């Protein structure tokens, strides 16, 4: 498959270009940026032949099969709609869009055109998360009572740009990290949050946007989910716990971009370390995407997953803003 990258981004440079090139036969053939000089420099650094600021030039190239969109969040919707109109498969970064309605329109357009549309929720590609999901699905902890997600990190200096000060670009910890946690809970528990209560704060980094959030979600099964996200916590670590009637799972250090961390099952039988595969998360996501394009499966997180996780995140923000419990509005994607 031949890819056009839309966005001269950090995430593409650090993870996704390598993950594309790890697929047999996949190539990156275009880089589109909003700035010609940055496009040229980025393309040179990463060995990408075609580059520029003209999105239509990349989209009208018949050699391009798929696009990866990793611009700032307000650009995802128009760029995805243009790519879909041009008949390209789309891997789009989270959050899919600035509103649930826009995200749903992107996904509906791709479905109507018969194109693969995926959301880059990388965490569900990790061996640790897949191992936990399998434990729960296999009944190892009985009926799930609750889940606690710990995702309070310290945003590194090179990412302290639009995320902490630009609401118009989709800044804030809720569209950045809560959206991932929503997808993790949906993936691990296999059900959709129904209502949320929440609070949010600017605790030292956020300027005009929240840098911290805590929320509690109710699930249709009756399980409760507690979620904590932040940009300002240098030493908190990350992970999640799932507690059931027959056991508890502790997944520590697993809310990351790398295949690290530990998973432990605790039950009446004692403590058991759970092994899991340590493949690269993004390479797995690209492999799942390629299989879907070949008609051999589905993306790790498809477009509807992206819409639903976004709906949960925006319900958290609405709950924090209003101080009232919110029913998650999945729109027509539910
Ligand atoms: P960056 O800030 O690195 O890149 C976003 C945009 O900012 C780029 O498209 C680029 O615009 C512009 N830009 C980048 N570097 C510079 C610079 N030095 N000077 C001026 N402009 C610059 O963002 P991220 O890579 O962190 O995030 C991009 C998207 O990916 C977001 O939607 C984010 O939510 C998502 N993301 C997802 C992750 C995941 O694991 N799924 C992890 C990290 C991010 P242009 O293209 O116009 O050159």
Automatic annotation (TrEMBL):
InterPro entries documented for this protein: Gfo/Idh/MocA-like_OxRdtase_N, Gfo/Idh/MocA_oxidrdct_glycsds, GFO_IDH_MocA-like_dom, NAD(P)-bd_dom_sf
Keyword Lipid biosynthesis belongs to the record: no
Record key words, sorted: Oxidoreductase
GO MF term list: nucleotide binding; oxidoreductase activity
Keyword Transferase appears in the UniProt entry: no
Pfam families: GFO_IDH_MocA, GFO_IDH_MocA_C3
Domain Gfo/Idh/MocA-like oxidoreductase N-terminal: 2-121
Chain ranges of the GFO/IDH/MocA-like oxidoreductase domain: 129-249
PANTHER family: BCDNA.GH03377
Protein name as catalogued: 1,5-anhydro-D-fructose reductase (1,5-anhydro-D-mannitol-forming)
Organism expressing this protein natively: Albidovulum denitrificans
Source species taxonomy: Bacteria, Pseudomonadati, Pseudomonadota, Alphaproteobacteria, Rhodobacterales
């Amino acid at each position: 498959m031949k890819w056009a990258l839309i966005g001269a981004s950090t995430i593409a440079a650090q993870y996704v270009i390598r993950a594309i090139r790890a697929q047999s036969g996949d190539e990156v053939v275009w880089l589109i940026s909003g700035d010609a000089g940055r496009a040229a420099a980025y393309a040179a650094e990463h060995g990408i032949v075609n580059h520029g600021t003209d999105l239509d030039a990349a989209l009208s190239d018949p050699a391009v099969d798929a696009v990866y969109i990793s611009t700032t969040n307000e650009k995802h919707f128009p760029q995805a709609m243009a790519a879909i109109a041009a008949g390209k498969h789309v891997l789009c970064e989270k959050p899919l869009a600035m509103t649930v309605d826009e995200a749903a329109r992107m996904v509906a357009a791709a479905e109507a055109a018969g194109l693969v549309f995926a959301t880059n929720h990388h965490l569900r590609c990790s061996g640790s998360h897949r191992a936990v999901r399998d434990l729960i699905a296999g009944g190892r902890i009985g009926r799930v009572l609750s889940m606690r997600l710990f995702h309070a990190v310290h945003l590194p200096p090179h990412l302290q740009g639009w995320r902490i000060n630009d609401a118009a670009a989709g800044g804030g910890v809720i569209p950045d990290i809560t959206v991932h946690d929503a997808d993790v809970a949906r993936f691990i528990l296999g059900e959709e949050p129904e209502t949320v209560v929440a609070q949010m704060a600017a605790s030292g980094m956020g300027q005009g946007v929240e840098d911290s959030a805590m929320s509690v979600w109710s699930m249709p099964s009756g399980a409760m989910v507690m979620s904590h996200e932040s940009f300002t916590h240098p030493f908190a670590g990350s992970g999640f716990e799932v507690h059931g009637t027959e056991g508890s799972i502790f997944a520590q250090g697993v809310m990351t971009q790398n295949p690290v961390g530990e998973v432990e099952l605790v039950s009446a039988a004692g403590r058991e370390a759970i092994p899991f595969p340590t493949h690269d998360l993004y390479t797995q996501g690209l492999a799942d995407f390629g299989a879907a394009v070949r008609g051999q499966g589905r993306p790790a997180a498809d477009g509807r997953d992206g819409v639903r996780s976004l709906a949960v995140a925006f319900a958290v923000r609405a709950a924090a803003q209003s101080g009232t419990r919110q029913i998650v509005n999945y729109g027509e994607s539910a």
